[in-house]
Amino acid sequence: LDLDTARKELEKFIPHVRNISDSSIRKMAGRDLVRFKQFKKQGIAVKFGRFTEKENIQIRKNVEEFLALTGIDSAEKLLFTSRYPEDKETISRLKVEHLFCEKLAEGIPRPWRLIYYRARKMFDSNNYKGRYTTEEKEKLKKYHAMHGNDWKKISEMMSRSNLSVAMKYSEIKSPVNYGPWSKEEVQKLMHAMEEVIRKRAEDEGSLSSSEKSNRDLLVDREKLLQKLPWSEIESKVGTRYWRQCKQKWTTILTNKMTKGQSLYRGTKGLQAKISIIKRLHEMKVEDANEVNWEELSNIIGDVPRGYVQARFYKLKVSCVPLWQKKTFSEIVDYLFKKTLPNLEEKL
């Protein structure tokens, strides 16, 4: 397909395709378009966002079957071939001969690139290595000064995953304040939020002439809550890293939506926890990505979905032993069987 035709074809499956580079369009036309059409015939839509437990299992199955087919002796060699220069030529040949791209993506309705990145994260022996030491943080600063944002090179030098070193550098690249937010910091955050939301509205052509000429801006609530460029917002605030900015923004929205009322303390707090656990158990979903968080937020009150997700996170961390090793459904079952009776008794 020529580039324009490929872009039009992909637009049927990916609404934001106009923002994707020409080189990525060419790759997707080869790796994804036929798969997307097959999924459409089955009534399955292309997915984005967090991978479900079912998809993670499918990736493991696809990788294990490819290893068995080719005789490559580890997932790390398959997905991080550059770490094994003596085997690189053989592994690369086997990948081409046995259609690695098609095999890895089998049964998963997502762009191949996202599946590949997810597989690399799952099978990277350098991932999940715990906290960075002070020495590692200093090394990371030094390596970034030498190599810029070449996270692949830096990750090899530090024996950490690409994603890990990139996210950690985001936290330590400037003096980060871990104390209470100052008025000046809150103002910077509010200005940053206004800038990115206004720019998005302008790009979408949804601003009225009066909104363009003054600071008043009417925005759908969803645009205040989802898919915001947090790294850009972090750089505008300057003294906080992106996760802090996201948490603070959720707190600000929660206070405005609830008019400052406390919804998660005392009797109200107990009732909210009970409602969250009961509704999650009734949903019978296998992964947090499948949860209707908007519905849950309405159970508690008029609050952002991020507020409810944060409450659930605290519940599992404080109540579920070894929660990191449990699936989402196992965590919910534990909360329902073990934690819920105690909460109801307290209430």
Describe how the helices and strands are arranged.
Layout: H1 3-11, H2 22-31, H3 33-41, H4 53-70, H5 75-79, H6 88-97, H7 100-105, H8 112-123, H9 134-147, H10 151-158, H11 162-172, H12 183-204, H13 209-213, H14 230-237, H15 242-258, H16 266-283, H17 293-300, H18 305-319, H19 328-346
Helix pairs in contact: 1-2, 4-8, 9-10, 9-11, 10-11, 12-14, 14-15, 16-19, 17-18
Q: Spell out the helices and strands N to C.
A: HHHHHHHHHHHHHHHHHHH
Residue windows where pLDDT falls under 50 for at least 5 positions: none
Radius of gyration equals 23 Å
The main sheet comes to:
none
How many angstroms does the end-to-end distance come to?
63 Å
Helix content: 55-70%
The geometry reads as: globular
Number of DSSP strand runs: 0
Number of helices: 19
User: What's the number of domains?
Assistant: 4
Structural class: mainly alpha
Domain Myb-like: 124-172, 173-253
GO biological process, one term: termination of RNA polymerase I transcription
Protein name: TTF1 factor
GO molecular function, one term: chromatin binding
Structure description:
Helix 9 runs antiparallel to helix 10 (151-158), helix 10 packs across helix 11 and helix 16 (266-283) runs antiparallel to helix 19. This protein has 4 domains: 3-123, no CATH class; 134-173, Orthogonal Bundle (Arc Repressor Mutant, subunit A), CATH 1.10.10; 183-206 and 215-258, no CATH class; 266-346, no CATH class. Helix content is 65%, strand content 0%. It has 19 helices and no strands. With 347 residues, it is an all-alpha fold.
